[in-house]
């Protein structure tokens, strides 16, 4: 290891200890994500593009449904996409979320189900709900990736030690200089996607356009960031040298592009 290479700070994963109660940084990042949805949602309700799509009571209800969808969908997505054979042999651990193991793509499906249920209860079009919610999500994703970095997990692939921001992650069990891919994902899937969606949705758009752009934008950002992220050790790279995250992102890219085309053709 070159002397100039950065080393992960090895943050204490526990942010606050109150007697036997320990609050972890990653859990706080979930709270930040949900708070971002509430704050940005109320700002969006004041805009001309979002004022007719949601009210404060509806946002509170949808957030509750969304929390359930994120947790159940994220966990079941991890079980089904990443370790189906293991959990088939250990079904009692499927709901053991405290042991770790959440998948964004599963969480996204859980949120879609929650939005569908909310739209059905309110008897409004699904894409009206989805278009309102999509710009509120990326800052929460950024918080989640920051939580990954604080925990020193989901580190990047080895890179040249001469890269100014190359970093050694002791949790990886070696002294290799690696990409801090959690920060790449925080910037791409989180901050950049938020700016793009927030500006795009600031003006009225055809029904479904904002949702389509979210799927397309996240899929592209995740697909690119995965080239710098170390594949899961128990999976490695799959067909065509792509990771599981990339294979799961390809349908998002295609569906997002199709929704965008459908949206603008429908508006004409």
Order of helices and strands: EEEHHHHHHEEHHH
- Side by side, the strands of the main sheet go 1-4-5
- Tally of individual domains: 1
Strand content: 5-15%
Question: Could you explain how this protein is built, in words?
Answer:
With 268 residues, this protein is mostly helical. The protein has one domain (6-267). The protein is built from 9 helices and 5 strands. It has helices at residues 25-45, 56-81, 84-89, 104-122, 126-133, 138-151, 181-200, 209-225, 244-267; strands at 6-7, 14-18, 21-24, 167-168, 177-178. The strands form 2 sheets. The protein has a 3-stranded mixed β-sheet, with no helix packed on it. A two-stranded antiparallel sheet has the order 2-3. The longest helix has 26 residues, at 56-81. The protein is globular.
Short structural summary:
This protein is mostly helical and 268 residues long. It has helices at residues 25-45, 56-81, 84-89, 104-122, 126-133, 138-151, 181-200, 209-225, 244-267; strands at residues 6-7, 14-18, 21-24, 167-168, 177-178.
């Amino acid at each position: 290891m070159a002397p100039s290479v950065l080393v992960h700070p090895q943050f204490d994963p526990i942010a606050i200890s109150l007697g036997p109660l320990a609050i972890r940084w990653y859990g706080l990042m979930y709270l930040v994500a949900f708070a971002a949805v509430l704050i940005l949602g109320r700002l969006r309700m004041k805009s001309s593009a979002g004022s007719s799509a949601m009210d404060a009571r509806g946002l509170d209800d949808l957030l509750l449904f969304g929390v359930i969808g994120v947790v159940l969908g994220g966990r079941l997505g991890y079980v089904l996409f990443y370790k189906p054979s293991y959990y088939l042999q250990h079904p009692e651990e499927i709901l053991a979320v405290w042991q770790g193991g959440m998948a964004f793509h599963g969480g996204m499906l859980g949120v879609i189900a929650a939005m569908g249920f909310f739209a059905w209860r309110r008897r409004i079009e699904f894409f009206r709900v989805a278009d309102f919610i999509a710009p509120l999500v990326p800052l929460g994703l950024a918080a989640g990736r920051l939580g990954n970095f604080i925990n020193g997990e989901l580190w990047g692939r080895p890179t040249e030690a001469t890269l100014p921001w190359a970093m050694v992650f002791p949790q990886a069990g070696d002294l290799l200089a690696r990409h801090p891919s959690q920060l790449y994902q925080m910037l791409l899937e989180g901050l950049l996607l938020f700016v793009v969606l927030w500006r795009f949705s600031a003006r009225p758009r055809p029904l479904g356009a904002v949702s389509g752009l979210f799927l397309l934008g996240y899929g592209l950002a995740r697909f690119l960031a995965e080239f710098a992220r170390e594949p899961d050790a128990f999976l490695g790279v799959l067909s065509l040298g792509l990771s599981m995250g990339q294979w799961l992102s390809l349908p998002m890219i295609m569906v997002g592009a199709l929704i965008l085309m459908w949206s603008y053709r429908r508006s004409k």
